[in-house]
């Protein structure tokens, strides 16, 4: 199995293919607006929506860098700023989810259709290749998907029996 095929499998596992952990689309399937903004009382965790904004920030930034559209990439002073929410409305929650899914799929298309030399060339603004960045982003997604599952369980929003 080549690196691209392996990475495509990992990338799909993060969004819509069941594997060792539930994919993001399934995890968010029944999350309400109220559950998306909820945080534990002790304030030690980000909300589900904040985690989604964080995932979207890094995936969108990398996509735009790979495409050479750095003037449109999202900006943040530091990592904490990547968890910033837009105005808290149901419509904005839905838009955040849809944009996150869209950007993830666009990165998957890039991976699937890039020529060998593109997979290994250094991406502008990054110190590594498309292949290495997507590997890192897949691990990053899996980590935060776990946090989203935990937040769902803390709210009683996680189904008692699931297929994964």
UniProtKB/TrEMBL annotation:
Domain DinB-like: from-to ranges: 24-148
One Pfam family of this chain: DinB_2
Coiled-coil region: none
InterPro entries: DinB-like, DinB/YfiT-like
SUPFAM superfamilies (alphabetical): DinB/YfiT-like putative metalloenzymes
Domain of life of the native organism: Bacteria
Protein name: DinB-like domain-containing protein
Organism: Gottfriedia solisilvae
